Amino acid sequence: MSARPAYAPADNAALRYADFCDFRDMARGSAKLRDSILISRGLPPLGMPHINDNVKRVASNPRVSKHQCADCGGALNVRRNKTGRCIHCVRAFLHPNTKRCSVCQVGLDRKNASGLCAEHRIRLRETKLDNPTRALVKKVSQLMNISAEDVLSRSHETAAVEARCVVASVLRRRGQSLQKIGRRLGRDHSSIKHLIDNLPKYAARNPLVTETLEKLA
């Protein structure tokens, strides 16, 4: 009967290195496939720093610091990612439709991630009109030849803004707070404060504003 052959002890370090090599090759293959798909869609590749030529150019460029974005040159306040870009540039490349508002097609800043401009992103609050405010809005709209719906709407037209300013100024003179006026007109207190602060400008531009305030005083 032949003796059982002696087995050599397992080399755990060699096994770990072999597993690492397999994982590295798999990661490189996945990155190359992903970059090929991005390039076919007209997008810049992301890749990995040790296999992507697009990222190697950042390391070979002495003018680009490791704390700067490779595209915009802005400071990176977070840990540098594999692309060498800040999160805003990566988001702008991956989501090109966010460069314009999806409703009105107005140009957006590169830091905008919602795809909507400020006018469509910030919705008007629900108006809580009481009877005195409703009567005041109706009277101001009649004196300034504008509909009451335009005064309470999102409209940025000059006539609507001036009428809204008159209503806010009269309510403020009656002793109401900015927060309460904002609830009545469906806006926040900062918008009401801005309206009241611009009253002299509106009065100098349109004499009808001064006449309406004098009639309501």
CATH homologous superfamily name of the largest domain? DnaA protein, C-terminal DNA-binding domain
Helix content: 40-55%
Whole-angstrom Rg: 32 Å
CATH architecture of the largest domain: Orthogonal Bundle
User: Structural class, from helix and strand content?
Assistant: mainly alpha
Count of discrete alpha- or pi-helical segments spanning 4 or more residues: 11
**Low confidence ranges:** 49-59
Number of strands: 0
Domain Chromosomal replication initiator DnaA C-terminal: 132-199
Protein name: Chromosomal replication initiator DnaA C-terminal domain-containing protein
GO biological process, one term: DNA replication initiation
InterPro entries: DnaA_C, Trp_repressor/repl_initiator
Q: Would you mind describing this structure in some detail?
A:
This protein is mainly α and 217 residues long. It folds into two domains: 15-85, no CATH class; 131-216, Orthogonal Bundle (Chromosomal Replication Initiator Protein Dnaa, Chain: A). The protein is 53% helix and 0% strand. The chain has helices spanning 12-40, 53-60, 87-94, 118-121, 131-143, 148-151, 158-173, 178-185, 189-197, 199-205, 207-216. Helix 7 runs parallel beside helix 11 (207-216). The longest helix has 29 residues, at 12-40. It is elongated. Mean pLDDT is 76; it is low at 49-59. One of its GO terms (biological process) is DNA replication initiation. This is Chromosomal replication initiator DnaA C-terminal domain-containing protein. It holds the Pfam family Bac_DnaA_C. GO terms for molecular function: ATP binding; sequence-specific DNA binding. Residues 132-199 form the Chromosomal replication initiator DnaA C-terminal domain.
